[in-house]
């Protein structure tokens, strides 16, 4: 008879709650009775030095226990300045166990770190950590697969861990809690795969030696427990909804802009070449990229690279603006924010007219500038530019276009940019010229 009235082959109540953390790529709160462990998986781009350039990834783990996870407070290891031998041993065990079921080549050159933090300890924290860590790892990997960043599932099979032991009465039991663990004559941790193979067997005759028959009895109990745990892991994974990821196809270009005026122009020009475009409006979950650069190129790169990294695909960004000679090239990079915070086109135009109040027509020369940055993960960003010359009018003219178009006079057409049709603007604008320049270098860049 066990002190908590369990059968000898009965697990404590096991719950696996997934996606309990906002930031981690995969997270799990697992409990075995009163033992509770929080497992968080993190995907990192880098690998340890010995794997650099090998194409292989890495999976590792860290283990820790909160001070009041235990009956009396145990000091944080961070305040002691070093990890105890027990902690080191456990975190190595967790990492080894997880790697046993992951094909590191299929994972590709990136690392997944699973942090296992014991919130409450009541026996079996290392086995709960391994069982939960596997689920957190699987969620992180499933997300990568859904995003398309991992092509083939690197997880070979399920993995779980459980404790077994022999009580002073001589009974072999499954899943010892703290009370049983303290008095146990034999104490064993088993890590096993779904196909019933062993990754690790840690069995110690603490108080008593044990027989071969007892060893086999414990292995059988463990096998039973592991099967049940794997069933629960599968249930938890099946119930975990992955976020929807926008898929980006070959004939699609993502343009890192929130400006609808720009988007229309890109749509028209790229549409004619058989591409469809997506803008940041299609990815409302992505936060705004703050333009901290001092040049068009810096800001264009910032927008393109941030979004390319985030979506893991090719991304084009446009940073553009108006440069007025009488204002020493202002507003330039600051064109969108010329009138101050809450920038809108009307306020920017009003401010421009005000700044040029007494400047005569022949001194109101200006140009529109556009820098395009084309970025893709792991590639050097490509830059092209385009400019168009004009003059700043004293009264806005026309309703087409956007931004400063109503004030930008184009000699060639004797019209303001806003009086040109979209078709006309898209032949001569700074953006159109930059896109033409892009076409000449695009293919070579993609190959390189
Ligand atoms: O063809 C144009 N016709 C008129 N005005 C234009 C044009 N091209 C740029 N501009 C002006 C609008 C904005 O005041 C600034 C761009 O600022 P810029 O940061 O590149 O764009 P934005 O903040 O509007 O959108 P986003 O950064 O999401 O691409 O230059
Ligand atoms: Mg902007």
Automatic annotation (TrEMBL):
Phosphate binds at residues 86, 124-126. Keywords: Hydrolase, Magnesium, Metal-binding, Nucleotide metabolism, Nucleotide-binding, Nucleotidyltransferase, RNA-binding, rRNA processing, Transferase, tRNA processing, tRNA-binding. The keyword RNA-binding applies. The active site is at 319 (proton acceptor). Coiled coil: none annotated. It catalyses: tRNA(n+1) + phosphate = tRNA(n) + a ribonucleoside 5'-diphosphate; ITP + H2O = IMP + diphosphate + H(+); dITP + H2O = dIMP + diphosphate + H(+); XTP + H2O = XMP + diphosphate + H(+). GO terms for molecular function: 3'-5'-RNA exonuclease activity; dITP diphosphatase activity; ITP diphosphatase activity; metal ion binding; nucleotide binding; ribonucleoside triphosphate phosphatase activity; tRNA binding; tRNA nucleotidyltransferase activity. InterPro entries: dITP/XTP_pyrophosphatase, ExoRNase_PH_dom1, ExoRNase_PH_dom2, ExoRNase_PH_dom2_sf, ITPase-like_fam, PNPase/RNase_PH_dom_sf, RdgB/HAM1, Ribosomal_Su5_D2-typ_SF. Binds 1 Mg(2+) ion per subunit. Substrate binds at residues 257-262, 320, 402-405, 425, 430-431. Its cofactor is Mg(2+). Gene3D superfamilies: 3.90.950.10, GHMP Kinase, N-terminal domain (3.30.230.70). Belongs to the HAM1 NTPase family. Belongs to the RNase PH family. PANTHER family: EXOSOME COMPLEX COMPONENT (PTHR11953), EXOSOME COMPLEX COMPONENT RRP41 (PTHR11953:SF0). This is Multifunctional fusion protein.
